[in-house]
Amino acid sequence: MAGVYDTHCHLNDNIYIENEISSSEMAAEAKKSGVDIINNVGYDIKSSKVALVQAQKNKHVWALVGIHPTHAQFFTDEAYNTLEILANADKVVGIGETGLDYSRGIEYKNQQISGFTKQVKLAKKMDLPLMLHVRDIEGSSDAYHDVLAILKKEKYYKAVLHAFNESLEIAEMFIEKGILISINGQVTRDKNLKKVVKELPMNSIVVESDAPYDTPKPYNKKTNAPKYLPLVVEAIANIKKMSRSDVAEITRDNAVRLFFPKR
Questions:
Q1: Mean pLDDT of 56-68
Q2: Which pTM value belongs to this model?
Q3: Nearest to residue 118, comparing CAs of 46, 66, 50?
């Protein structure tokens, strides 16, 4: 199986730096396993700069630059100006990860909404897709509704909902707006997510490793890496009763249309 597009990973994560694992090494291992396009996603200014440098070093790696909602309270307008400068680089294909995360409380809700709104405006200005991180406390969907309200206000829906593991109803709210749903290693072990994936239209699905997090079975006790992403493709193929190569091709095409619309 070849041609898998990893729409979301963090080659810039400290765990790789601490273990002296280079982005080039991970990209090469991924390519051997059939993953030949990687989105390297920033979550603050430093990691966004690192993501860009790593993308510039590796032909098959592309960068997204953004400020994660749980970091929003730490950044001033100057940081968002820096983000815009970074977003102009040739190898940047999106803004994120950004969004709203109420799962740890809503103490900084206003800062999150402000930071997310700025990044939506930047994505719209640059005509770049958004990488959405949305989380809520169990039993609530406020964060999802608030994200959609902001996107509606800005009239901008070019986006991926990353690491999705919610209800079909929530997925459908985003799909209705043309937003892609990204599935990671959780699908190899979460029964509810498997049920949701079964109902999702293939033209709305992309795949991601979210490395170093959410390693798929049977490697779930190891640090994740993009090379394991074909296991997610295989899980979706089994759920959908499709061939792995078709799932790889369809999810890749969905992602390419979003991140490389002029190619």
A1: 98
A2: 0.97
A3: 66
